[in-house]
Write a structure and sequence with these properties.
Layout (H helix, E strand, L loop, with lengths): L1 E8 L2 E11 L2 E7 L3 E4 L5 E5 L5 E4 L29 E3 L4 E3 L4 E3 L4 E2 L34 E6 L1 H10 L1 E2 L6 E4 L6 H8 L12 E6 L8 E2 L6 E4 L2 E2 L3 E6 L10 H16 L4
Antiparallel strand pairs: 1-2, 2-3, 4-5, 5-6, 7-8, 8-9, 9-10, 11-14, 12-17, 13-16, 14-18, 15-16
């Protein structure tokens, strides 16, 4: 007499057992196993069956765990594991982390760290950087900004190591990662004189003494009075956020808004 036992956890299929009985005696059994390929933090990237065939792949996601565009292949096989120690809760859309929940859209927890200030000054953030820093390469920290430009100006800046002010004596910088299209649309207001100004990015950390020279005239931009010397460049090259230009504008705008919300979760 054959039997199939399906085991579920939080509404997700975890295991299938195939059993064959002769009366009350178990004659044969089979367990369906998948093998995971994971990130260094333990988050599964893909599942493979015993023959080596990929049966599930994690969809693309933002730096802070927000899934981008669809559920990927065979979503029923998604193990539900997210960042280290987190389990996806389908009912709420939050990441369960034993003592509290993590919200990927805001990149921070919904309740403070139960250990208090032992966990850091910002009791809502996820580890050291995802809710405080704009850190696409894992190199950044506090007082990190970026300057978008075109190829010709990029070469000049890298040669001199200085951001020179405009005729008003100001250097424009931002702390928001944006695709080249969004730099043109949201920062440069589609000014035809600035075509290509979002193609290159210089991400840098300023000296603490320079912070007093920086003002925020708008939601997305900062200005620095006078020339700004680049002593600590973290990244320089083609705009790394160009990889998101295949997404529709509303989705990209949501990513921009999430970065602005980071400031409210204890960022700059």
């Amino acid at each position: 007499m054959p039997a199939e036992i399906r085991e579920y956890q939080h509404g997700r299929l975890k295991m299938i057992r195939h059993l064959v009985f002769d009366g009350w005696k178990l004659m044969a059994g089979e367990v369906q196993t998948q093998y995971a390929v994971s990130t260094p933090t333990g988050e599964p990237l893909a599942l493979f069956d015993p023959t080596g065939k990929r049966v599930w792949r994690r969809p693309k996601q933002s730096l802070y765990g927000l899934r981008l565009g669809g559920h990927g292949e065979n979503p029923q096989l998604d193990p539900g594991l997210r960042f280290a120690g987190q389990l996806f809760d389908e009912e709420s859309g939050l990441f369960y982390n034993r003592f509290r929940y993590y919200l990927p859209e805001a990149t921070c927890y919904l309740s403070p760290d139960p250990t208090g200030l032992w966990g850091g000054e910002n009791t809502y953030r996820y580890v050291q950087n995802p809710t405080k820093f704009i850190d696409p390469l894992g190199l950044a920290g506090e007082n990190v900004f970026m300057h978008y430009t075109n190829k010709a100006d990029f070469d000049g800046i890298m040669k001199s190591g200085v951001l020179h002010p405009n005729v008003s004596g100001k250097v424009y910088i931002t702390d928001v990662l944006m695709s080249p299209k969004d730099v043109m649309r949201d920062l440069l207001i589609n000014n035809p004189n600035h075509i290509g100004r979002g193609d290159y990015a210089i991400i840098f950390k300023i000296d603490p003494g320079e912070r007093g020279n920086i003002r925020s005239p708008s939601r997305l931009e900062y200005t620095h009075e006078g020339k700004l010397k680049l002593n600590n460049i973290l990244y320089a090259g083609k705009n790394p956020y160009a990889i998101l230009e295949h997404l529709d504008y509303d989705t990209r705008l949501k990513l921009t808004d999430n970065q602005v919300k980071i400031r409210k979760c204890g960022g700059k």
